[in-house]
Design a protein that fits this description.
This protein is α/β, with parallel strands linked by helices. The chain has nine helices and 15 strands.
């Protein structure tokens, strides 16, 4: 029994030494689990450390000065998570191991994504390209990533939605770009999409049925765009009214000038698109189950407006379907983006590291965007404190001057008639008074003559 205990103690003493010898930690790096998790951050590295164990599962060389790592990480056949963020990479790294599941490349100098860059990375579930200089994503460059669930392209210079995105996406962040239009076929293919962030772009409108083919969508951010509040935005207007998603509804109009700085949902349908109810103009058709709003009478009553709003508020196809969230993305064993070098030094080697949500990196000040959206959300009332319905009513009154003229004429005629009646009564009273005076004088005169005789 004593010999058995000695053997156990000897094994416990020798095995860690053997592991350290087989999987040494590179100088200056932190290895809370040598051979599995290696952090070499903020060391001013210009090349990868040479002594990183090939059995490493999670590697971070973030916040260094790496310019080229092409074909240097291929031998790491078991690497699942890699962070190359905050470096000086001018293009997407080549020759990465196919085993990668999470790749962090935020804050580099990447300008384009070619179709061959990610061909071998078919196990990726997360790709973060935030705050680069990407202008072009070749069509189909991401289509082969059939397991990709989280794609972050925030803070780049894209002018359109990337084409042929993988249908497996559940989270797509395209905020702080220069996107001016949404490609309907590419968007409708994202049948598993749950979160869409496309705020702080140059969108002016949204195409018809843009979100109706996304049955699992549960969060959308469309704020801080260049919305033109005219007839073409009525689909988005209806969708916002009927949607039950988690989203910001404070969309501010940029154009036309008389509606600038006003909240879209504070406007009436008539103020957005006057042609909807004009009797002599071309009727604007709305997507309401192949039904069009017909011609109305010349005067638009409040009841007609309320009825129209109820028809516009019909639920879309996406809300009519049952929404079932798919299974969440598989959480990786390590989270490099949340573990700093200082925290790593204080960790126990056997402590497991959990993953957290994505970080939001502030946008670089020197990057010029396609425009500056400095419009602040307005209050719930219109300019000058006027309520929207009151403003609409006033516009209707001023838009029909004939009604005001007829009313004024009738009032003037009535007033003149009353004055004429009063004048006639006054004249009649004066005549009666004069008659009485004359009769009295005639009676007094003969009495005076008799007294004098």
């Amino acid at each position: 029994m004593l010999w058995y205990r000695c053997d156990v103690l000897l094994a416990l003493y020798i095995c860690p030494l053997a592991c350290l010898a087989m999987s040494p930690c590179p100088p200056g790096c932190c290895c809370p689990r040598p051979g599995f998790l290696v952090l070499c951050e903020s060391l001013g590295l210009r090349s990868l450390p040479r002594s990183v164990p090939l059995s490493t599962s999670a590697l971070s060389v973030a916040r260094n000065q790496l310019c080229n790592v092409d074909h240097l990480l291929g031998p790491f056949s078991g690497l699942q998570e890699l962070s190359l963020s905050h470096n000086l990479l001018p293009r997407f790294p080549r020759g990465l191991p196919p085993s990668l599941e999470s790749l962090l490349l935020q804050e580099n100098r990447i300008t384009y994504i070619t179709s061959g860059s990610l061909r071998q990375l078919r196990n990726l579930t997360r790709l973060d390209l935030e705050d680069n200089r990407i202008r072009v994503v070749q069509p189909g460059a991401l289509l082969d990533l059939r397991r990709l669930q989280i794609l972050t392209l925030k803070g780049n210079k894209l002018t359109s939605l990337p084409l042929n995105l993988p249908p497996s996406l559940t989270h797509l962040d395209l905020s702080a770009n220069c996107i001016s239009s949404l490609d309907l076929p590419s968007l409708s293919a994202l049948v598993n999409l749950q979160v869409l962030n496309i705020n702080s772009n140059c969108l002016r409108t949204v195409p018809e049925n843009a979100f109706d083919s996304l049955p699992r969508l549960r969060s959308v951010d469309l704020t801080n765009n260049l919305w033109v509040c005219e007839c073409d935005i009525l689909y988005l207007y209806r969708w916002l009214l009927s949607s039950r998603l988690k989203m910001a509804t404070d969309l501010v109009c940029k154009e036309p000038l008389h509606l600038a700085h006003r909240l879209l949902l504070n406007l009436s349908v008539v103020s957005i698109c006057p042609h909807v109810l004009q009797p002599h103009g071309r009727t604007h058709h709305l997507d309401l189950g192949s039904a069009a709003i017909g011609k109305q009478t010349e005067r638009v009553s409040v009841e007609n407006k309320e009825e129209l709003l109820q028809r516009l508020s019909k639920p879309s196809v996406s809300e009519a379907r049952s929404i079932q969230d798919p299974s969440e993305a598989r959480v990786l064993h390590y989270a490099l983006e949340t573990l700093t070098y200082e925290e790593c030094l204080s960790l126990n080697k056997t402590q497991s590291i959990g993953s957290t949500h994505l970080k939001t990196t502030p946008l670089p000040e020197e990057e010029q965007r396609c425009r500056e959206n400095t419009t602040a959300p307005s209050n719930t009332t219109s300019a000058g404190g006027t309520q929207p319905w009151l403003s609409t009513k006033r516009n209707e009154l001023f838009s029909n001057p004939r009604v005001l003229t007829q009313k004024d004429s009738a009032a003037i005629v009535s007033l003149l008639a009353v004055l004429c009646v009063l004048l006639a009564l006054m004249m009649l009273a004066v005549l009666v008074l004069l008659k009485k005076v004359l009769v009295r004088q005639q009676r007094v005169a003969p009495a005076n003559e008799r007294s004098a005789g």
